[in-house]
Specification:
The protein has a domain of 73 residues: Histidine-containing Protein, Chain: A (2-Layer Sandwich), CATH 3.30.1340. Helices cover 48% and strands 21% of the residues. The longest helix is centred in the first third of the chain and has 20 residues.
Amino acid sequence: MNRKKLSALLIAFLIMLPPLASCGKTVGETIDDATITTRVKTAFVNDPLVGAARIDVDTFKGVVTLSGRVKSKDEETKAIALARSIKGVVTVKSTLQIQPEPRPTDR
């Protein structure tokens, strides 16, 4: 490799290093976390009890955090159990809020 190409690669590496180091995760951990998040969301979509559109999933170093709204305690319990069942999940934290759907009023 000539000197100019090596210098360009070194500069590119140094430019990319701070954003990668600042988040506290390696590239591999970032990919693993993205995979875990995708698998959890897929499990939610495939389960009729869990409202996937109302639940946000964030993963950091294998720790899954669920946030958003669920209709019942059963839905929350099911979502947590599904997340825990995914390979690579270290633990699950839930900040889910239970908000039952409003009943239609009788007229």
